[in-house]
Design a protein that fits this description.
The chain has 311 residues and is an alpha/beta fold. The chain has two domains: 134 residues, Nucleotidyltransferase, domain 5 (2-Layer Sandwich), CATH 3.30.420.40; 165 residues, Nucleotidyltransferase, domain 5 (2-Layer Sandwich), CATH 3.30.420.40. Helix content is 42%, strand content 23%. The strands form three sheets. It has a five-stranded mixed β-sheet. Strand 2 and strand 3 form a beta hairpin. It is globular. The mean pLDDT is 93.
C-alpha cells in the first residue's frame, strides 16, 4: 500500500500525519507553531514531526509516495510558497521545495482551509458531495472550496468585506468576514460587552474561567444572559451574511462549519440556517449547512490527499 504525508499548519500548533491511499489517518504528531521564530527554524521542527509520524506508522520511508501541506495565508500552489501570512508573519516561504528536498518526494502546498475542505469531502461531513465549501471559524476564517474531490485553489474569502468601514482586520482592511466571524472576532465582541456590563453574567463567567474564549458567550447564553444572547444573534447575523454571499455566488451543495466555534454544533447552526436561508437569492437551492465531523484530522487527511492528487 502507498502512504502520504499530511501537514496541517495552524496558528498555535502544527500537526503532521501519515495517511493511507484510502484516506485513513494511521499516525500523527503535533508541535507548537512558535510563529515568532524564524521560518526555517519552524521548518526544521516540522521535518522532525513528520519523521516521528513515519516512525509511528511503522512503515519504511520508501513507502511514502508524496506529501501535502496545508498552510494559512496566500499560497502559490505551483511553486510551493507561502507568499504571505499576516497571522504567522511569513513572507515568501519556500516551504514546499524544502520539504520535498528533505523527504525526496513531491510536495503539494495548499491553503489550510482548502486542505480541510478536501478532507471533509473525502472522509467527513461532505463525503459524496459534488461541490462543498468548508468554513473554519478559528483564529481567522478559513474558506475552502472543492469540486469533484478537487480543490478550487485561491479562495481567500475570509478577507471579503461584509461591513464596509467596519472593524479593522489583521490584514489591514476594515470590515472583513474574518474580523467579525472568527473566534477572535467573537472574543473581541464578548470582551467589549464585558467592559460595558462588568457586573453581568458574562463577566462572572470570564472571571471564573480565567479568560474569555469563543465559548464564553455560549455558556452565558445557556444561563439565560440577555447580553450574551444578543451577541450570538449579532454574530450569527454577520456569519449568515458572509455565507449567503458565498452561497449566492458559488452554490455549493454542502457547507460544513468547523473550527473552534463550529464545535457549538446545532447551538450555532439552527439560528444560522434560518438567517442564511432568508438571504439566499430566490431560485438558488440553499446549501445543506452541517458541522464538520473530522475535527483537526480534516486538515491532515486533506493535505495528504492533495499530495496524492499530484501523482
Amino acid at each position: 500500500m502507498s502512504y502520504y504525508i499530511g501537514v496541517d499548519i495552524g496558528g498555535t500548533n502544527i500537526k503532521t500525519g501519515v495517511v493511507n491511499e484510502e484516506g485513513l489517518l494511521i499516525s500523527e504528531a503535533s508541535i507548537p507553531t512558535g510563529a515568532d521564530r524564524p521560518q526555517d527554524v519552524v521548518l526544521q521542527d516540522i521535518i522532525g514531526a513528520v519523521r516521528s509520524s513515519i516512525e509511528g506508522a511503522k512503515i519504511a520511508p520508501k513507502e511514502i509516495k508524496a506529501a501535502g501541506m496545508g498552510s494559512p495565508g496566500m499560497i502559490d500552489t505551483e511553486k510551493g510558497i507561502v507568499v504571505y501570512n499576516n497571522n504567522l508573519g511569513w513572507r515568501d516561504f519556500y516551504i514546499g521545495p524544502k520539504m520535498s528536498e528533505a523527504f525526496n518526494v513531491p510536495v503539494r502546498l495548499e491553503n489550510d482551509a482548502d486542505a480541510a475542505a478536501l478532507g471533509e469531502v473525502v472522509a467527513g461531513s461532505a463525503k459524496g458531495a459534488r461541490s462543498a465549501m468548508i468554513i473554519t471559524l478559528g483564529t481567522g476564517v478559513g474558506t475552502g472550496f472543492v469540486i469533484n474531490e478537487k480543490i478550487f485553489s485561491g479562495c481567500e474569502f475570509g478577507h471579503m468585506v461584509i461591513a464596509y468601514g467596519g472593524r479593522k482586520c489583521t490584514c489591514g482592511r476594515h470590515g472583513c468576514f474574518e474580523a467579525y466571524c472568527s473566534a477572535t472576532g467573537l472574543i473581541n465582541m464578548t470582551k467589549e460587552a464585558i467592559e460595558e456590563h462588568p457586573n453581568g453574567t458574562l463577566a462572572e463567567i470570564a472571571k471564573t474561567e480565567g479568560l474569555v474564549s469563543g465559548h464564553t458567550v455560549f455558556v452565558a447564553a445557556d444561563q439565560g444572559d440577555a447580553v450574551a444572547i444578543n451577541i450570538i444573534d449579532e454574530y450569527t447575523g454577520y456569519l449568515a451574511c458572509g455565507l449567503a454571499n458565498l452561497i449566492n455566488g458559488l452554490q455549493p451543495e454542502v457547507v460544513s462549519i468547523g473550527g473552534g466555534i463550529g464545535k457549538q454544533g446545532e447551538r450555532l447552526l439552527v439560528p444560522l440556517r434560518e438567517k442564511v436561508n432568508a438571504e439566499v437569492y430566490p431560485g438558488i437551492t440553499p446549501s445543506k449547512i452541517v458541522s464538520c465531523t473530522l475535527g483537526y484530522k480534516a486538515g491532515l487527511i486533506g493535505a495528504a490527499m492533495a499530495g496524492k492528487g499530484i501523482l
